User: What shape does this take?
Amino acid sequence: MSTAANNEAAQDLALASAIFDRVATDLSLICDRELVVESVTCERKEAKTPAAKKIHISFKLELRAPNAVLNGSLILPLPDSIALASYLMMMPDDAVKSNRNLTTLDRTMKDAMVEIGNLIGGATDAVMREQSGGTVAARSGGCQGIRPGQNPAFPYTAGAPLVCAKAKARLHTLSTFEMVLQLPPVPMPEAT
Assistant: This one.
């Protein structure tokens, strides 16, 4: 691997790790339950990464860079997305454990899920602005459920590179789950 490719891979991993850490920190504060990122891997792909073997929620992200609007998403399993939304609504642990089995969401749960998406967008924005020297901003683009094997719905040109980062995470006392971050490569200013 060339020095340029090594630098690119290191920058991708650093950015993805910073986003995962900031998302975990912000959601931990708001939901009053610890969200821990245990490990992060990152690679560039030329296709979206579909949801794994169960239903997921895709929290869509919109990035505004100079002369471009770029799109991506953070994907979480449905039960863990429901747990975050339930904790956001200040539900006790026993109610959260019960809610994790939901397959149909009522209006209140959907609204809480949208708010989780806004928090993810805000955390991503803070990292992007810091890493880019203020030239790149981010915001939530909403959220959607995705079936197993389905790709998240965000604008994407087939074959274009995507940074695909995966993190093992754990919310409070619940089991470990995988978060998948997909973003187009974002040009960042050179460090001086």
